[in-house]
Design brief:
Radius of gyration: 17 Å
Strand order of the largest sheet: 4-3-2-1-5-6-7
CATH class of the largest domain: Alpha Beta
Strand content: 15-25%
CATH architecture of the largest domain: 3-Layer(aba) Sandwich
CATH topology of the largest domain: Rossmann fold
Structural class: alpha/beta
Distance between the termini: 12 Å
Shape: globular
Number of strands: 7
CATH superfamily of the largest domain: HAD superfamily/HAD-like
Largest sheet: 7 strands, mixed
Helix content: 40-55%
Length: 201
C-alpha cells in the first residue's frame, strides 16, 4: 500500500506565523523552518515573543479563522484523494489547524498540541514524537506502508529522504541547491503528475 504524506503550511495553506506577523506587525514572527532549521529554538522564540507582546492563544486562533487555504489547494487535495490515500503531516498545532482543516474538507492530520497557562498564554508545546515527520513515515513503513512525501521546508527533509519518492513544493532556492536530487515543483498540476508517477513504480 502507498500513502501520500503532505506538509500543510506552504503546501496547502499559508504559513500561519507569517499571516499572524502580517496582522500584528511583528516582523520577527515571519521566521519559519525555512529560515531556522532548529524547530525547538524557533518555537521558544515565538512563545517568548508572544508573551512579551501580550498576545495569547486566542489571538493566534482568531487569525487562523480568517486565513484561507492556498488558491487551488482544496481542488488539488480533492483530486489527489480520488486515487491516493493521504495524510497531512505537520509541525503545526491542532489549535491552529482546525479552521483550515474545515476549509480543506477535513483530511486526516497528524500534528502537535500546545500547552496554555491559566492566563491563556502559550507556555509550551507537545510534539507527537521527537522527529515528527521522519518518525511518522518510518512508523508507517514499519506496518507495511510505502510513503510518498512532499513539503517545502527544512523540517520536511527527513520524511522526503525516508520515503520511496519525495518532492519539494514551492521551496526556496537555498533548499533546491542543498538537495538537488529531489524534484522541486511549483504547481499543483506538477505535483499531482509526480505523485501519480511515483505510485506506479
Amino acid at each position: 500500500m502507498n500513502l501520500v504524506c503532505l506538509d500543510m503550511e506552504g503546501v496547502l495553506t499559508p504559513e500561519i506565523w507569517i499571516e499572524f506577523a502580517k496582522e500584528t506587525g511583528i516582523k520577527e514572527l515571519e521566521r519559519t523552518t525555512r529560515d531556522e532549521p532548529d524547530y525547538d529554538k524557533l518555537m521558544k522564540f515565538r512563545i517568548d515573543l508572544l508573551r512579551e507582546r501580550g498576545l495569547k492563544l486566542k489571538d493566534v486562533v482568531a487569525v487562523c479563522n480568517r486565513v484561507d487555504v492556498l488558491p487551488g489547494a482544496r481542488q488539488f487535495l480533492d483530486e489527489l484523494r480520488t486515487f491516493a490515500q493521504v495524510i497531512i503531516v505537520s509541525d503545526t498545532y491542532i489549535e491552529f489547524a482546525m479552521p483550515l482543516m474545515e476549509k480543506l474538507g477535513y483530511p486526516t492530520l497528524f500534528c502537535n498540541e500546545l500547552e496554555v497557562d491559566d492566563e491563556g498564554y502559550i507556555c509550551d508545546y507537545k510534539q507527537r514524537c521527537e522527529h515528527n515527520k521522519y518518525d511518522t513515515v518510518r512508523g508507517l513503513q514499519g506496518i507495511g506502508i510505502q510513503t510518498i512525501a512532499a513539503g517545502d521546508s527544512h523540517n520536511d527533509v527527513g520524511m522526503i529522504q525516508a520515503s520511496k519518492a519525495g518532492f519539494f513544493f514551492r521551496t526556496t532556492d537555498a533548499i533546491k541547491q542543498e538537495y538537488p536530487q529531489y524534484p522541486a515543483l511549483d504547481t499543483y498540476e506538477e505535483l499531482l503528475e509526480a505523485i501519480k508517477g511515483a505510485l506506479t513504480k
